[in-house]
């Protein structure tokens, strides 16, 4: 059974860069059969897809966040990461990592438990 | 890319059926048969309930069903149970390898 676990600082100052890591267990991130995504949810609000990465390093981003987002993968650690630059209070949210199948898996079948990131000075 | 539109809340009595709508555009919901639905209990991660408009993952009750007509997808919960009380989100592939979620619907079991 695959498991995903987010980790990273819970507090980030405005204008700085938010950095999170998702560790995958119970399966290899480099199996080639999956995409790995980041999704966020501000308190009391809906879900927002941030972007995804494939093992090769190929990425796709939400157009509304593209200029500030970088997703990378470290196959040696079975991890993938999110960096969001120039954060503001509007970036305060629970951040989830999730998996989708490749090819043809246009849905997210496994999710991490989520980690709360607060942007505040 | 705008969020898909869902009703803020839907309620029903135990045993009843309810339907949650998810309205998008021809660029997302209407353009692809790739709508998925997620159930989220408070403080928990979302759980996949329906994918590819109407397919159920293994382990999901057959009380949950999905459909689509034009730019609107729907999730129906039949035989409503107390454990179904949660937030529900639709999600659609939006082309160019991107996804868009719905605004979310709070389901209350009366």
How far the N terminus sits from the C terminus of chain B, by CA atoms, comes to: 35 Å
Shape of chain B: globular
| Strand and helix order of chain B | EEEEEEEEE
Residue windows where pLDDT falls under 50 for at least 5 positions of chain A: none
Helix fraction of chain B by DSSP (H/I, runs of at least 4):
under 10%
Beta fraction of chain B: 35-45%
Distance between the termini of chain A: 39 Å
The largest inter-chain interface, given as chain pair and residues per side, is: A-B, 22 and 26 residues
What does this protein look like?
The complex is a heterodimer of chains A (about 120) and B (about 110). Chain A is an all-beta fold. Helices cover about 0% and strands about 50% of the residues of chain A. In chain A, the strands form two sheets. In chain A, strands 2, 4, 5, 6, 9, 10 and 11 form a seven-stranded mixed beta sheet that branches. In chain A, strands 1-3-8-7 form a four-stranded antiparallel beta sheet, with no helix packed on it. The radius of gyration of chain A is 14 Å and the shape is globular. The mean pLDDT of chain A is about 95. The mean pLDDT of chain B is about 95. In chain B, about 35% of the residues are buried. In chain B, strand 3 (about 35-40) and strand 4 (about 45-50) form a beta hairpin. Chain B contains no helices and nine strands. In chain B, about 0% of the residues lie in helices and about 45% in strands. The chains are: A mainly beta (about 120), B mainly beta (about 110). At the A-B interface, strand 5 of A face strand 7 and strand 8 of B.
Please give a handful of descriptors for the protein shown.
heterodimer; A: 121 residues; mainly beta; seven-stranded mixed β-sheet; four-stranded antiparallel β-sheet; 0% helix; 50% strand; globular; B: 110 residues; six-stranded mixed β-sheet; three-stranded antiparallel β-sheet
């Amino acid at each position: 059974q695959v498991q995903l676990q987010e980790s990273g600082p819970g507090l980030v100052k405005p204008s700085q860069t938010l950095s999170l890591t998702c560790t995958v267990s119970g399966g290899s991130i480099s199996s080639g059969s999956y995409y790995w995504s980041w999704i966020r949810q501000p308190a009391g609000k809906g879900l927002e897809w941030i972007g995804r990465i494939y093992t090769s390093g190929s990425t796709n981003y939400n157009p509304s966040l593209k200029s500030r987002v970088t997703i990378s993968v470290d196959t040696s650690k079975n991890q993938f990461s999110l960096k969001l630059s120039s954060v503001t209070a509007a970036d305060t949210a629970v951040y989830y990592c999730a998996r989708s199948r490749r090819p043809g898996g246009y849905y997210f079948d496994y999710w991490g438990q989520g980690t709360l990131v607060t942007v505040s000075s | 890319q705008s969020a898909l539109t869902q009703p803020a809340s839907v309620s029903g009595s135990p045993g009843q059926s309810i339907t949650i709508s998810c309205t998008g555009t021809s660029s997302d919901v209407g353009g692809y048969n790739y709508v998925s639905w997620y159930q989220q209990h408070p403080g928990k991660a979302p759980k996949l309930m329906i994918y590819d408009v109407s397919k159920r993952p293994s382990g999901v009750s057959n009380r949950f069903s999905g459909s689509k007509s034009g730019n609107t997808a729907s999730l129906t919960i039949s035989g409503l149970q107390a454990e179904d009380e949660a937030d529900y989100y639709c999600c659609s592939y939006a082309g160019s390898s991107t996804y868009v979620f719905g605004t979310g619907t709070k389901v209350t079991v009366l």
